[in-house]
Design brief:
By secondary structure, the protein is mostly helical. The protein contains 5 helices and no strands. Helix 1 runs antiparallel to helix 2, helix 3 packs antiparallel against helix 4 and helix 4 packs across helix 5. The two termini are 31 Å apart.
Length: 141
């Protein structure tokens, strides 16, 4: 494991799990069955984000750019798994703490992520052409 992999994946994993555990154990909101279900949803979303991020490796970037067409792992089924799993993560956390104002986060974030996914798709289609179109047609979102 190189230091880049440590920063990209393992440090993010440990910090994220600590955050989720802290919110679950001592965050606001009632400690009931719904909180437990929301915690499991948030953990599943977080695991999906970490898995997708690990699969991307050095192809990950904050701005849309096309270095490689990653079609393995979770990317073989979902074109934008980081966005999809982050929805589960965010909805899980918001449901855990049940602060009404936080329900605006997914309402605002999901359309932004859809727009970003479309921008990324245009960049990938320009760079990879038919290969990307075949990939797009065989995957979800």
């Amino acid at each position: 494991m190189d230091s880049g992999e440590f920063r990209r994946v393992w440090l993010f994993l440990v910090l994220g799990l600590c955050f989720l555990l802290a919110v679950f154990l001592s965050g606001p909101g009632p400690h009931d069955t719904l909180r437990n279900v929301a915690f499991v949803l948030a953990l599943a979303g977080f695991a999906g984000v970490v898995s997708a991020r690990y699969t991307l490796g050095r192809s990950f970037s904050v701005v849309a750019k096309a270095t490689d067409l990653v079609t393995t792992g979770v990317y073989s089924k979902i074109r934008n798994p980081i966005y999809v799993f982050s929805w589960f993560l965010i909805i899980g956390v918001v449901t855990m703490v049940r602060m009404p104002l936080l329900y605006l986060v997914p309402v605002i974030l999901i359309p932004i992520q859809i727009a970003r996914a479309r921008a990324e798709a245009r960049v990938l289609e320009e760079k990879f052409g038919d290969s990307y179109r075949r990939y797009r047609d065989s995957t979800w979102f």
